[in-house]
Design a protein that fits this description.
Order of helices and strands of chain B: HHHHEEEEHHHHHHHHHH
CATH architecture of one domain in chain A: 3-Layer(aba) Sandwich
Largest sheet of chain A: 8 strands, mixed
Structural class of chain B: mainly alpha
Shape of chain A: globular
Helix content of chain B: over 70%
Number of helices of chain B: 14
Distance between the termini of chain A: 34 Å
Membrane topology (chain A): Peripheral membrane protein
Radius of gyration of chain A: 21 Å
GO biological process, one term (chain A): peptide transport
Subcellular location (chain A): Cell membrane
CATH class of the largest domain in chain B: Mainly Alpha
Oligomer: heterodimer
Structural class of chain A: alpha/beta
Strand order of the largest sheet of chain B: 1-2
Main location (chain A): membrane
Strand content of chain A: 15-25%
CATH topology of the largest domain in chain B: MetI-like fold
Number of strands of chain A: 12
GO molecular function (chain A): ATP binding; ATP hydrolysis activity
Number of domains of chain B: 2
Strand order of the largest sheet of chain A: 6-7-8-3-9-10-12-11
Largest interface: A-B, 28 and 22 residues
Largest sheet of chain B: 2 strands, antiparallel
CATH superfamily of the largest domain in chain B: MetI-like
Order of helices and strands of chain A: EEEHEEHEHHHHHEHEHEEHHHEE
Chain lengths: 330, 332
């Protein structure tokens, strides 16, 4: 069953220097219980896509178009056109989000218990005791020792990894259908990163929820995702299930990303591969394929095609999509 | 929490002692003969001067004088002997020969006036400044915000003596909106209505200047806080904008106001010199100014010390209050 179907999502920010086209005509969908990873460099549009779905982009700062049909508990709703007050009822209930930096995402003046109970109370007309019991249950589930007493602790009394666990507990308190995890491990130590990803995977199975995992860590993607969308300069450039993407990356950008991951199973005599150049300015995108100035394989296409035409996102067999002239059926 | 408070208390006591010593040193080494000042500006009778020097203890070594002064704070102090004995009970801050009164009782008369002035003004400016600041932040760039900017500009540029005079001229005399604050200062317990009527304009004058500063501060603090990650988290939970502002944003945005308000209040308690002068209020500021003009040294020392004491005490209160507001301070 399709849980969320995003079609032609475009997000533009008017700025004094010109229109920043952060996301351009992006379409994707996610089924119930599935994990979709969205990968890409900073500024590729990963985060802003999901903020738009949550209705968290401040009003009047961006032009958002397209549709995002979400199968909520009350039937299908369009996340992009629904009234903001109406959307509030689903936010934190049917769709929850965890953020990149658990250091700053929790309110420093309130105990974590207060903050999680509040998230439960706002969507459930139940007694405080019920919310408190539910909070303790969740805190135990995310692996916080002595949840009953830790409830009264303030965020600064937890380590980074523990704070992210608290954030996860807060996001899951209402049994969401969809969890958006925006770089949940970026701010954490490497050893803690693995624990958090493992925790998210386990909880996803237990709660039977879908998850959008935003990351730029290809290692995280390989372990946790079912499908992967690779984004570059506001567009999806490749989309495939995780096995196909790692086994047969089609777009040179994806190939570059995968080549830049350190691997234990390869001889490490050579330096890590890097993608040359910088991500483009979002105000003045290069003509043709946005990736062409950094692409090492555009000669294979030839005739300046990459510099003049934007390739379409086209199917390359069994659910594998790629936005590249290379290998396009002639 | 208890350890935090007792440590802060100990430090405050040390600061108070240091401040009292510093003030005493400054006035002990001024190029005046304190004894000569006791009998008025044009007094040249060496007999009186020397008698007063002995009476006030100015003939003793410096440290002995300071020690006697400290002792007087706790046990009272008497000047002279026999029929001319003057007794100032604890806490004695000395004796003013020019006013023929113990300094403590002079301060005891002036302090309630200044306190009444400060307490009314702080309520007014907090209500006005915080209210307007929040409105300006909430409706940033809209008409309320523009008007608040104008208010801030006027409030911060007009000196209080001018605001006070303008209020007197227009609100009272020209437009007759409130009756002329006739008569002298009346204590609250004697006649609360008259107390409020006489103090209303002084409150307004002081509050006007401070409210402008607070409006500007609250506005930027609320705007900064609304951009915090934890406010985004609150929104992602599905909380209403009202709860987000009232519970999450304001708690963090207004915490620094406690510090500001505490110290501004302390500053005013030391004497609102200009406002008291414009409205002819017999407060600490006026007591200090008239003492400076007349070289009434004991009063100058006492009012300076008192102002410093109030600031130190207020600092302590603010620190304790802040630890209550912000849990992160408690561990430090």
């Amino acid at each position: 069953m399709t849980l969320l179907k995003v079609e032609n999502l475009s997000i533009d920010f008017p700025t004094p220097d010109g229109l920043v086209s952060a996301v351009h005509e992006t379409s994707f969908e996610i089924s119930a219980g599935e994990t979709l990873a969205i990968v890409g460099e900073s500024g590729s549009g990963k985060t802003v896509t999901n903020l738009a779905l949550m209705g968290l982009i401040p009003p009047r700062t961006a032009n958002i178009s397209g549709s995002a049909i979400f199968e909520s508990h009350d039937g299908p709703i369009d996340l992009l056109s629904i009234d903001r007050n109406e959307l509030r009822k689903y936010r934190g209930k049917d769709i929850a989000m965890i953020f990149q930096d658990p250091m700053s995402a929790l309110h420093p003046f309130y105990t974590i218990g207060d903050q999680i109970i509040e998230a439960h109370q706002v969507h459930n007309q139940v007694d405080m005791k019920v919310s408190k019991a539910r909070t303790i249950e969740l805190l135990e589930l995310v692996g916080i020792q002595g949840a009953g007493t830790r409830l009264k602790s303030y965020p600064h009394q937890f380590s980074g990894g523990m704070r992210q666990r608290v954030m996860i507990a807060m996001a899951l308190v209402n049994n969401p259908l969809l969890l958006i995890a925006d770089e949940p491990t970026t701010a954490l130590d490497v050893t803690v990163q693995a624990q958090i990803i493992k925790l998210l995977e386990d909880l996803q199975k237990e709660f039977k929820m879908a998850m959008i995992l935003i990351t730029h860590d290809m290692g995280v993607v390989a372990g946790a995702a079912d499908r992967v969308n690779v984004m570059y300069a506001g567009r999806i450039v490749e989309s495939a299930n995780v096995r196909d993407l790692y086994g047969n990356p089609l777009m040179p950008y994806t190939q570059g990303l995968l080549a830049s991951v350190p691997r234990m199973d390869r001889p490490h005599t050579n330096r890590l591969a890097a993608i040359p150049g910088q991500p483009p300015s979002m105000i003045a995108l290069p003509s043709g394929c946005s990736f062409n100035p950094r692409c090492g394989r555009k000669d294979e296409v030839g005739a300046n095609k990459c510099e003049t035409q934007m390739p379409e996102l086209t199917p390359r067999g069994s659910g594998h999509l790629s936005r590249c002239f290379i290998g396009e059926s002639v | 929490m208890f350890a935090y408070i007792s440590r802060r208390l100990a430090v405050s006591l040390l600061i108070l002692l240091t401040v009292s010593f510093a003030v005493y040193v400054i006035f002990a080494f001024l190029p005046f003969d304190p004894a000569a000042l006791t009998c008025g500006k044009n007094c040249n009778d060496p007999g009186i001067i020397e008698a007063n020097r002995r009476r006030l203890g100015y003939d003793l070594p410096f440290f002995t004088q300071y020690f006697i002064f400290l002792k007087g704070l706790f046990f009272g102090r008497s000047f002279g002997e026999g029929a001319a004995l003057i007794n100032c009970p604890a806490p004695s801050l000395g004796y003013s020969f020019q006013q023929h009164a113990c300094v403590t009782s002079l301060i005891g008369e002036a302090l309630p006036v200044t306190f009444s002035l400060a307490i009314g003004a702080i309520f007014m400016w907090l209500a006005l400044g915080i209210g307007l600041g929040i409105l300006a932040a909430r409706f940033r760039g809209r008409i309320v915000d523009r008007l608040s900017t104008i208010f801030v500009l006027i409030g911060t540029s007009l000196p209080t003596f001018l605001t006070g005079l303008l209020l007197l001229v227009f609100v009272v005399i020209r437009w007759g909106l409130i009756p002329f604050p006739s008569g002298n200062y009346t204590p609250f317990l004697e006649n609360p209505f008259e107390w409020g009527q006489i103090l209303f304009l002084p409150w307004l004058t002081l509050a006007f200047a401070y409210a402008a500063l607070y409006t500007r501060f609250v506005r930027s603090s609320v705007i900064d806080t609304s951009n915090e990650d934890y406010i985004r988290t609150a929104r992602a939970k599905g909380l209403s904008e009202g709860v987000i502002l009232g519970k999450h944003t304001l708690r963090a945005a207004l915490a620094p106001i406690a510090t500001m308000a505490g110290l501004d209040f302390a500053g005013l308690l030391g004497g609102a010199i200009l406002t008291e002068s414009v409205f002819n209020l017999p407060g600490l500021g006026r007591l200090a100014i008239s003492a400076v003009v007349k070289y009434d040294l004991p009063i100058i020392v006492a009012t300076t010390l008192l102002a410093a004491f109030i600031v130190v005490i207020m600092n302590l209160i603010v620190d304790i209050l802040y630890a209550y507001i912000d849990p992160r301070v408690r561990v430090a």
